[in-house]
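Many introductory courses stop at the sequence. We go one step further.
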Amino acid sequence: MTIRIKRAYEPASSHDGSRVLVDRLWPRGVSKERAHLDAWLKEVAPSPALRTWWHHDPERMDDFALRYRAELDGHPLTVAAVAELRALAAAGATTLVYGAKDPHVNHARILAEYLAESPE
């Protein structure tokens, strides 16, 4: 299973494989044509309440990761979307596309780690 993460503002590449937007909101200023997405799985994004609480604060990253993983395990729609994402990743290279500015402080990184740690 090869899972990469990439900002929505970076150009698509042939090495990306399946490109999946994992944000609840569409990235500002990115057209659908430019995004080159194969899927948009809003359900795997953090809940609006969690995203608002976190506010991409690096000091809250560890606590955010725990809460986000609990969401990934807890809600039936989220569990189904995670299963769909795992199926895509099992079929070939998959890139999780996100809109956050920081490549280290974002939920896509945690999601990629989560998928790699707990394959089903």
